[in-house]
Design goal:
By secondary structure, the chain is α+β, with helices and mostly antiparallel strands. Among the domains are: 1-80, no CATH class; 152-291, Prolyl oligopeptidase, N-terminal domain (Methylamine Dehydrogenase, Chain H, 7 Propeller); 442-705, Alpha/Beta hydrolase fold, catalytic domain (Rossmann fold, 3-Layer(aba) Sandwich). The chain is 20% helix and 33% strand. It has 14 helices and 39 strands. The strands form nine sheets. An eight-stranded mixed beta sheet has the order 32-33-35-34-36-37-38-39, with helices on both faces. Strands 3, 4, 5, 6 and 7 form a five-stranded antiparallel beta sheet that branches. Strands 8-9-10-11 form a four-stranded antiparallel beta sheet, with no helix packed on it. α2 (11-25) packs parallel to α3, α4 crosses α14 (687-705) and α8 crosses α9 (562-573). The chain starts with a helix and ends with a helix.
Length: 709
């Protein structure tokens, strides 16, 4: 059926959808009937087989029928959840009460300035400030995001970079959630905005050393950053195109060394990279290639003195560190600095004048290794808990003895430390307060292992209040992701206390597809090994039930984006294992999306999922694609979210999935779809609005569990 016929026959559907909205919003008696999406078959032929998609029409958000349907779903969700309104407010207020609403970040020293941000009670966004000379200096407000966000339902900052002499601020603003920004420049000496405005940029911006030249990227029609441009402040001509990436598998990003001596153009696919470099004091020079791209080979470049250091996985699955002279960085002269190790994965590198800091991962936990260039001696930073998360924080200065890092665990709130790399002493600069009497001694965390069907041991990180009795009666919230090699580390959340204090156990399943146990953990959970991600998660759920942490009647599972693919797949495979499913902006229409190269992220993710135009990948993806595997059977209670302007997982994926589930499922469990009509992939941008979204999800869970109090 043609597009014209889909749109042309929409008047009756619009009227029907509006009737649904009216019925739902005015309902004060029994629960209303859910919206029913029209069935309008759309047929394609793939590998000689007909693919019929009954809800293809939901892809056109310019069609008022589509908007009416999404609004009807929202109205239905509001009506079903109406009786929890007061409870949602209770949850919102208790989560808000744990936050120090008026607060300061830890100031970051950069030359003679101290940069920080602060929040004010009742305001959604941060105020970005600095002081000159010392922390006792006069505060200068660079931008107040609350003012910039006025009149917009959504607000996010992209670039936020001061010129090398600290006189001009470049900042980028997105007011739709579509991750397309306007780039502005503010004279920090006069407080005035410069007339230079660059529209429709990708987000990041990079300053040259002359304090007037800025490099930025723009997107193509599928929202891939593919061109890098040079803009000169006050210039009258057109910005200069510096680089264009024609291979749709690669994205282009600007980068700059911590030494501030070199600028980089990075071209990255999901499994390979290529980098060009240029001295920062030569902005009109030509970027030079370091090493041509090779499939399956990644490298990342860091500058130190006369050398470039490369973190690469060439013949080194878990990565190794090599170095080469800046004057001639050809691959044939690279020398190994840190050898590849089967049991340790190298995740990152920071180069200071006198120290090299390597971020490693062993046995699922991050470690920080520091090497003194002069003495050649190395040491690791010790951490007090058996399960934790550590990451480098804001380190702006190249010549320093101080490494700033962020530390937290499932029970320890976010903590900022300054670590003296020479004396090995650390100073706690700030531990973010949890108001209301939070006592970490009342909670405990542990790591256990489930056995996957192929015998692999899958880690699970848990946190709960002390005094747990393992009798199968505990409500349990199990979160998973397992894609792109992203390692899901045990972080702290004060919002989570609203579940823990009501008897919940919270856990993360570190399934294959991440890199928690090394790069092989990722490789064993992608492409034609992707089923391991789902069977790992099922094995975790079965283990938790067998060990009497919980029971199927008490088990909640949750995932977002590619984690939504995870929960969507396992709920088709084993709906009997779970009582409640929370799927946030879920990537559930996997085959249809990966068959459409016009959709953002499709082409450059062939290396993650496979290209279904190739029959072997099509057949494999059809085994797990959630939308394609919905069946006429009972499903758990489900809450699904979407963002109308989401460029990463298009809103129609959760909308189509919900519509198909509604038409086919045989149970009477609630199935709710909530679409944020003014946001993108991350949901609400304001900190209070975000808490309200969490309150809705928690209220849904607790109401179904019968513990909404």
């Amino acid at each position: 059926m043609s597009r014209f016929n889909q749109v042309g026959g929409s008047a009756l559907t619009i009227f029907s959808a509006l009737l649904i909205i009216f019925a739902v919003s005015s309902c004060s008696g029994p629960a209303p009937d859910p919206p029913v999406a029209k069935i309008e078959p759309h047929t394609d032929t793939v590998h000689g087989e007909a693919r019929v998609d009954d809800y293809y029409w939901l892809r056109d958000k310019e069609d008022s029928t589509v908007i009416a349907y999404l609004e009807a779903e929202n109205a239905y969700t509001d009506a079903i959840m109406k009786h929890t309104d007061k409870f949602q407010e209770t949850l919102f207020e208790e989560m808000k009460a744990r936050i120090k609403e008026t607060d300061l970040s830890v100031p970051m020293k950069d030359d003679s300035f101290y940069y920080y941000s602060r929040t004010e009670e009742g305001k959604q966004y941060r105020v970005y400030c600095r002081k000159k000379g010392s922390l006792d200096g006069v505060e200068e407000i660079m931008i107040d995001a609350n003012i910039l966000a006025e009149g917009h339902d959504y607000f996010a900052l992209g670039a936020f970079a001061t010129s090398p002499d600290h006189s001009i601020l470049a900042y980028a603003v997105d007011t739709s959630g579509g991750e397309l920004y306007a780039l502005y420049f503010k004279d920090l000496q006069t407080g005035e905005l410069l007339p230079d405005i660059v529209h429709d940029v990708d987000g990041p911006a990079m300053w040259a050393a002359d304090n007037k030249t800025v490099f930025y990227t723009t997107q193509d029609d599928i929202k891939r950053p593919y061109k890098m441009w040079r803009h000169t402040l006050g210039g009258s001509g057109t910005d200069a195109l510096i680089y264009e990436e024609k291979d749709e598998r690669y994205n282009v990003y600007p980068g700059k060394s911590l030494s501030e001596e070199y600028m980089f153009i990075g071209q990255y696919s999901n499994n390979s990279s290529e980098i060009h470099y240029l001295r920062a004091d030569d902005p009109f020079g030509k970027f030079k290639l370091i090493q041509p791209r090779q499939d399956e080979v990644e490298y990342y470049i860091y500058h130190h003195g006369k050398d470039f250091y490369a973190m690469t996985n060439e013949n080194a699955q878990n990565f190794k560190i090599m170095k080469t002279a800046v004057r001639g960085p050809a691959r044939r002269v690279w020398k190994t600095v840190i050898q590849h190790r089967d049991s340790v994965m190298i995740e990152g590198l920071s180069m200071f004048k006198d120290y090299m800091v390597v971020l490693e991962r062993e046995n699922g936990l991050r470690q920080v290794k520091i090497t003194n260039f002069e003495t050649k001696k190395s040491h690791y930073i010790d951490f007090p808990e058996p399960i934790y998360m550590v990451s480098p924080s804001s380190n702006a200065e190249y010549v320093t003895e101080t490494l700033r890092f962020t530390y937290y665990s499932l029970v320890t709130p976010r903590s900022i430390f300054d670590y003296d790399m020479q004396t090995r002493e650390r100073e706690l600069k700030k531990q973010y307060e949890v108001l209301g009497g939070y006592d970490p001694e009342e909670y405990t965390s542990e790591r256990i292992f489930a056995e996957a069907p192929d015998g692999v041991k899958v880690p699970i990180s848990l946190v709960y209040k002390k005094g747990l009795i393992k009798d199968g009666s505990n409500p349990f919230y199990l979160y998973g992701y397992g894609s792109y090699g992203y390692s899901m580390d045990p972080y702290f959340s004060s919002n989570r206390l609203s579940l823990l204090n009501r008897g919940f156990i919270y856990a993360m399943a570190h399934v294959r597809g991440g890199s928690e146990m090394g790069r092989w953990w990722y490789e064993d959970g992608k492409l034609k090994h992707k089923m391991n991600t789902f069977t790992d998660f099922i094995a975790c759920a079965e283990h938790l039930i067998a060990e009497k942490y919980t029971s199927p009647e008490k088990l909640v599972i949750s995932g977002a984006s590619a984690g939504g693919l995870l929960v969507g797949a396992v709920v088709n495979m084993r709906p009997d294992l779970f009582n409640i499913v929370i799927a946030d902006v879920p990537f559930v229409d996997a085959v249809n999306t990966m068959l459409d190269a016009s959709i953002p992220l499709t082409v450059n993710e062939y290396t993650e999922w496979g290209n279904p135009e190739e029959k072997e990948y099509y057949d494999y993806m059809m085994q797990y694609s959630p939308y394609d595997n919905v069946e006429a059977k009972a499903y758990p209670n489900m809450l699904v979210t979407a963002g109308l302007n989401d460029p990463r997982v298009q809103y129609w994926e959760p909308a189509k999935w919900t519509a198909k589930l509604r038409a086919m499922k045989t149970d009477d469990h609630p199935l709710l779809l909530k679409t944020n009509m003014g946001a993108g992939h991350g949901g609400a941008s304001g900190r209070y609005d975000y808490l309200k979204e969490i309150a809705l999800e928690y209220a849904f869970i607790l109401d179904v569990m019968g513990i909404a109090k």
